[in-house]
Amino acid sequence: MARSAWCMAHPASDRARAAAAPDRDAGVHRDGARRNRAPGMARVLAALVLLAAAPGQGARADDKPQRIVSLDLCADQILIDLAPRSRIAAVTHLAADASVSAIPERARGLPVTRGAAEDVLKHDPDLVLAGQFGVAGTVSLLQRVGRKVVIVPLSSDLEGVRRAVTIVAAAVGEVRRGETLLAAFDARLAAVARAAATRGARRPSALVYQVGGSASLEGTLADAALVAAGFANASHAYPRLRGSQVPLEAILARPPDLLVLASPPFAYRTVVADNLRHPALRALAARIPSLELPWRQWLCGTPHLADAVEALAAAWPLAAKGAAP
Question: How confident is the model at residue 266 (pLDDT cuts 50, 70, 90)?
Answer without folding.
Answer: confident
